[in-house]
Amino acid sequence: MAFPFPQGQQGDDEEISDSIEVGQELPPGEQGTAEEELSAEAQLPPEAQGETNGGPLGCCLGVTVGLLLSLTVAILSRLYADPLAQVFHSGLSITVRIVMSIFAIAAAAVFGYVGWKIGKRLYREYELSPRQQQRLAHLEQRQLQRQARRH
Description:
By secondary structure, the chain is mainly α. It has 2 domains: 13-51, no CATH class; 53-125, no CATH class. Helix content is 72%, strand content 0%. The protein has 6 helices and no strands. Mean pLDDT is 76; it is low at 5-26.
């Protein structure tokens, strides 16, 4: 399992403090909901607190890429089976499995971390523009009309 930050280091401290400051600036009627949101957010793990981002998605994609790249060890061992068999004699199969396992763990950790960083920068949740909101409303109306015709 790849962790986005070394233990004890938090990268989202500023984002969490910003969200708390925003919650404190709300009118008195909405303070209760802001406090409920803050308490619900405090129950989440540190990487899930604060701003919504694509860190977990990027990490998942990175781990997948790392595991797929570990298959290159098996492919290369098949391509160079004769020369490797002469070097390792009869232990080629177990050697390939060990090297592939080590490479899979290392690649999953490295690519998971890199994926987390890339995902956090690229995959963000943004508000829809007015044009996008209109298009979405139009599409929802069309879909409701189609469903009404079917029933």
